[in-house]
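Model the whole thing, not chain by chain.
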Amino acid sequence: MFQKMFENVRGKNPLIHNITNYVTVNDCANIVIACGASPIMADDKDEVEDITNICDGLNINIGTLNSRTIESMLIAGKRANELGHPVVLDPVGVGASKLRTETALRLLNEIKFTVIRGNISEIKTLAVGSATNKGVDAGIGDRISEDNLDDAICLAKAFAEKTGAVVAITGSVDIVADSQKAYCIRNGHQMMSSVTGTGCQLSAMTAAFVTANPDHVLDATAAAVSAMGYAGEIAYGRMSKQDGNSSYRNYIIDAIYNMTPEDLKKGAKYEVR
Amino acid sequence: MFQKMFENVRGKNPLIHNITNYVTVNDCANIVIACGASPIMADDKDEVEDITNICDGLNINIGTLNSRTIESMLIAGKRANELGHPVVLDPVGVGASKLRTETALRLLNEIKFTVIRGNISEIKTLAVGSATNKGVDAGIGDRISEDNLDDAICLAKAFAEKTGAVVAITGSVDIVADSQKAYCIRNGHQMMSSVTGTGCQLSAMTAAFVTANPDHVLDATAAAVSAMGYAGEIAYGRMSKQDGNSSYRNYIIDAIYNMTPEDLKKGAKYEVR
Amino acid sequence: MFQKMFENVRGKNPLIHNITNYVTVNDCANIVIACGASPIMADDKDEVEDITNICDGLNINIGTLNSRTIESMLIAGKRANELGHPVVLDPVGVGASKLRTETALRLLNEIKFTVIRGNISEIKTLAVGSATNKGVDAGIGDRISEDNLDDAICLAKAFAEKTGAVVAITGSVDIVADSQKAYCIRNGHQMMSSVTGTGCQLSAMTAAFVTANPDHVLDATAAAVSAMGYAGEIAYGRMSKQDGNSSYRNYIIDAIYNMTPEDLKKGAKYEVR
């Protein structure tokens, strides 16, 4: 199934509109290309509606949000909803400031999201109103382990039920759930947390996957999450003694570029609960 | 001739003011350094006039434009015109939104550009009002091949005639033309389209080349275009099996850094029409 | 001493709020992670106070400043002062425009900085009102050599006395001074000036070092400066014939990632004056 999801991205080359932060935007653009889609970044309120019109899917990421771009997110998101385009939300750092929390809740209220992807602290903040996040990273108190995996799956399913979105919680184990079914994905490498924006990159790539597979949102999201994690494994395997997090960043994107759908099928590690 | 153009960049180390998008800005800065010039990025309306005053050339790129930066582009462009500094326009994604199209046309109307560089869809949009562009990429219906090369050269010469600028259309074959003469440049590698911002990088580098060679704008632009393409070839030659578009991005900039003017002379592939 | 400073960064993992430019922001985030701290980038006036509240230190960098972010810098800086958090100022390109000069002076007037880090032209502009800077780079007329090193040390100590901040002037020899004591640091490689933003990266890393060592600001700043220079040496040692400034950028961050506090102790080259 993951193989087919990935084949569709490569085959359809969807055009993805990204309203995203200026920290990781270049990596987001390059990974969208690497997976087989085309990115366009545009965040001015006077053009986002036009851009959404010509694109196939939308990725909204609230890192480095500001009053100007928040308005653009709302305009683009509503237009994408009208057009029936998939919309992904990455609530970066929600909980870290009142502005981020209020903006994320407003976006959830006014836009129907296809996928919501965040770390456990971000999703807890949105779903239950509090968490132990540390800036843009998940808090230690929140981290997913085998001990609390069932609780996290329940949280994801309940939040998916509430929002109608597929919910992706990424961490040492990744959970991708709709209200009925959850993938527990065991790809990835802990060094991925040493690179800024692997989450942002995954959200952008997820937008590409769900846009290419609109009738299989859960599977397409799980395929994107698995592909990202598997790329982290492949990239780690390339690391020389002198390589650090900057080279690792390049290697992850390279790994997506070189990954075939068949590779993903072989490399994916998950169970369904 | 290309050798001399490049030598002048390395010898004069011009300071280039860039008003550019936040997606590819870091790569633009690094490639400007790599070719022998110095970059400064500044986009606030309250400082762009001062910055243009101390710089030797200006590069205006409308990717991720917004109301704040559009005003700055106009101020800086007019000031550069007053000072007689070369000004390059990169009309990223023109045609993709009304804002981009109107902004690009307004810039063309109010500023005299030395060079206009875009893909075929962008140049067609500016020159004849319509094209088949796909977001920030050229549309398939527009792509330059041997079959339509003469038409594209005519378009470039006519648009150069109309604007007084040298027109650079980059694609599988690159065209650099003034109203009388066109270079058809056959450097480059198709993988360059897998890296976000190779066009932006080229525009920034072109600003450096024409600033260092103000009396040879056509040749200097052609030299920059050829250098970028040749760097794409060299970079491709370095690719290992596991390298992808992220490493390729680094290798292109590295290739410009290591390219000597004599290398460019030997590697340049072009004819004049 | 440097070893202990670095150990504290790795041991405490401070959370650093960065209000910085969009040119080098990704590299700043990755080097903050590489040295053992965590970055968060946020620049909207409606959230910077919240973000400063949850962070441990603040880094203000005026590259690509604008009216929106200048206000945010002032709000965040004042809040950090109230909280007793270390605040670093990187006055990028001060002197290149009236806006940058006035903003830097206003920041110095309204915020108490823990560290001020710039090149010699930037520090001269702030300390004595004029310099020969070239855009964001130090002017040739200003550059530090053995001949004018004593003068530069005097300047640094006097400016430190005036501001109450530790002053770091980076160049071919780096000076880190308070009013009484100056480190002359002889790490680094001249190729570092071929990468955009090595200064920005150092300022972000310095914020991490002083935040982890609030009672040893002079030593912590010197340790960060020495670590950055040493990383530049290690990175240069990795360069293959085809590597250029883009690979070098990655290698510098990689070198910080792999550097142990003990490595820094062994690699640091400095004298105290």
